[in-house]
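Box 4.2: Ligand-aware structure prediction
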Amino acid sequence: MYCPLCQAEYKPEIKHCADCNVTLVETLPLELPLEEIKWISVGTLQGKIYADMIAEILKKEGIAHYIKSDVLTATFNISGLGSTGGRVKLFVPENKLALARDILAGLIN
Ligand SMILES: [Zn+2]
């Protein structure tokens, strides 16, 4: 058992922290720092406009994400239709990968 305030560890039969006068909990809540997030690529997207559209969908679903553009093709970005748009890689946290793939099924390959 742990005290949620002072984080002291107690024997299982103890129910209250004598110092803080609060009920003990079985596990301390884990706070994962941002650096601990493992980013996984969902796939490669063709063109920034398309990537922005996907990003908008993920935002609505509350899924953190980031987009990494191909530097070379971004520099020589040609607007318009066709396959000339830059290649963009989409990343989501590892724990949201399955959800993101579900949502984006059929949208990206
Ligand atoms: Zn305490």
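In the box above, the bound molecule is zinc ion. Strands lie at 39-46, 66-69, 87-93.
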